[in-house]
What does this fold into?
Amino acid sequence: MSIQVVGTGAYVPERILSNDELSQMVETSDEWIRQRVGIAERRISVSESAAEMAAKAAERAMEAAGITADELDLIIGATISSDSICPTMSSYVQGLIGAHCPAFDVNSACSGFLYALDTAAAFLARGGYRYALVFGAERLSKILNWQDRSTCVIFGDGAGAFIIAPGEQYLASKLFTQFDNNALDIPNGQGSSPFYEREVGDALVAMSGQETFKFAVRRLAEDVQQLCTEIGITLDDLTWIVPHQANTRIIELCAKRLKQPVEKFYMNIERYGNTSSASVPISFDELARSGKLKKGDLIAMCAFGGGLSSASCILRW
Ligand code: ACO
It folds into this structure.
């Protein structure tokens, strides 16, 4: 048994942080950020937790699916920026939307939403589940070093959500992990133990941009190609590719490597930056609501991030 997406939703906070405003905080420029990354502005939360943003995205997804929170059998959320370790963000979301089902988080950095979707698909395949809420939500602004221009210009806050049910849309998926904490590292802080003798870094994003960049291009291209081969379709058969929104140049190089027109890749990085686990569901929701998706369209979703990790899947709409 496979799954189908019966509703999607997204939410981004109102506060817009432009490249020009960032240029007053660190030594950077609108021109550098647009040319090297493709971002013009991003959204930053000033008063909402990631869980509150997730709940708003979830409510929009439930409305699109025509269901109430009572009908949910499962909630799986992806995040690297929860406001608490316990309760989990998914537990908070359960409370905020008034659901009564089991809820837990997964963490696979920017690949997290697709890991969560694959986990939910496995639960639904087991039987006994009707509707599941799967979301990615991030308040990354809380784990950025706002003095580090190589990372603070890249990220943004937001949330995206899917309601899924048993169905036949989910044709193939691939998860990949290759340990590397040099390319991308977010320590969890020193902690309070008076006994622990090793140093642990601050809970802030540290990244080797170029290493992550190369990993991203290689994985996005290989994963999507491999999934197409697995289900006996060609890349030309894909109507849309919804990639993680990390850098326009990563997406352009991936398009070139796959010999596909870049227009096939849905992009909104210019407006939101990299929202980590929220980026794929926010992008997919925009695409779905744009009216551009037609029944039968083959759509690949693909992401990469800390771990290092990557994840991808193909849906028939
Ligand atoms: N403004 C101006 N100059 C800058 C900035 C900035 N914001 N940031 C870096 N520079 C400078 C550097 O200091 C360097 O200067 P130098 O040549 O004088 O030494 C120059 O620009 C080039 O720096 P690079 O690091 O080589 O720049 P690059 O072209 O690689 O772009 C970037 C950096 C945008 C980070 C890119 O490597 C990238 O997008 N990498 C992938 C990141 C990513 O996808 N992360 C996703 C995973 S995140 C997760 O899972 C949580």
